[in-house]
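Minutes, project check-in
Item: structure for the 298-residue chain
Input as provided by the requester:
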Amino acid sequence: MNSRDEWLAERRKGVGGSDAAAAIGQSRYQTAYELWLDKTGQTAGEREENEAIRFGQAMEAIAADMFAHRMGVRLRRRNQIIRHPKYPFMAASVDRLVEGRREGFEAKNVNADFFRFSGEWGDQGSDQVPVEYLCQCHHYLTVLDYDAWHLGAVVGGNRLVTYTIERDPEFSELLIDQEMTFWTFVETGEPPPFDYSHRHAVEILKRLYPGTTGETVRLDASLMDWHYVRIEADEQVKSYQAVSDGARAHLLHAMGEAAVGLLPNGGAYRRKVVHRSAYSVEDCDYTTLTYSKPRESV
């Protein structure tokens, strides 16, 4: 077993910083059930690396150097998994620690459009960051009993925006309590409740049950309620889609062949002809219509 495999095996023995949001049901990208599958060894345990992940890893050192220079501090690595002295299932594999202070640093590579338009990033120096990152930083604060954690967002590959998350004892207690509840599911082998409302719930179930046995099963009578909920919701989706399509038609008609249509509020619609190559469908061109929010006045 190489060092990477050993690290992954060790990581499975606890809840890490990047697991924290999922463990307490606050991640938009992973449910507690998926995390439980990982921690109980029922999945591969590591996402396939893509270019975005590799860029993020490469940007970590750059962000750390820029932060250290800007703040006049020295950062050091801690190349080992740190565990909470009282709750060893809480683990931390941190990017950097600030020498001489009870503070740490976490780097994130952030898409410029997401940073600008998502509404999840506050002013530099604030603690307004996406909830998954907030949980991660506070998890580290709880494990190490530190006072503050700095998050450096490398925006668009050419700008560093920094945030500071200070330790909140009540949040730490909440993390300990809810991560302990999650870890109990891991230790007992009993799965946590499935989050049917999660936006990836259907995708998760398709991955869990990719095939079919050919059998026929009788569903419980209580599922009739969910059947009617689905039917009604599907009809509402169709109705709202028709309204949306009608509004889009008005805008396209008004713009004609123009590339940009400016609204009185400063927003803009953009038409763009996109060429789609022939793969499993015929070669064709189609036109997209996208909306840009008005810029906020400074």
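Outcome recorded: The chain has a mean pLDDT of 87.
No further action items on this chain.
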